[in-house]
Design goal:
The chain is an alpha+beta fold and 127 residues long.
């Protein structure tokens, strides 16, 4: 039902215990019925779905709401919004760690070769 991109990823999620029905982990071969409610843990939040009816084959994304209802609590969706906000409020692109060239420039600036910038009257030149 397009929760995971491939069946193999969905199988791995079941084996890792990320898919539960009534609080119990389900196996990949578990049969679902209309009216079943299950949870899927993806990233920081847990999605909750209710099966409305079963499909015989893979559905297009437009038809999924006819077969499955997303009943994820608002608190879980707020966690997702907070994560998006935190990602946007991070540092600007390019303002992270210095590049190798930046590091070399910084080391050259703080090396002993910068003495020519100081006047002889400065207290710092007293050696």
């Amino acid at each position: 039902m397009r929760i995971y991109k491939t069946r193999s990823i969905a199988t791995d999620a079941c084996k890792c215990g990320r898919v539960k029905m009534n609080g119990v982990e389900v196996k990949p071969s578990r049969m679902f019925h209309a009216g079943d409610v299950f949870t899927v843990r993806k990233g920081p939040i847990t999605y909750t779905y209710r099966i409305l009816q079963l499909a015989n084959n893979r559905l297009s994304a437009k038809l999924v709401p006819e077969y499955m209802q997303d009943i994820t609590p608002k608190e879980q969706l707020e966690i997702l919004e907070l994560a998006r906000f935190a990602a946007q409020s991070g540092r600007d692109r390019g303002t992270g760690r210095p590049t190798k060239k930046d590091r070399r420039d910084i080391e050259q600036f703080f090396s002993d070769d910068y003495d020519y910038l100081l006047d002889e009257d400065d207290d710092l030149l007293e050696d």
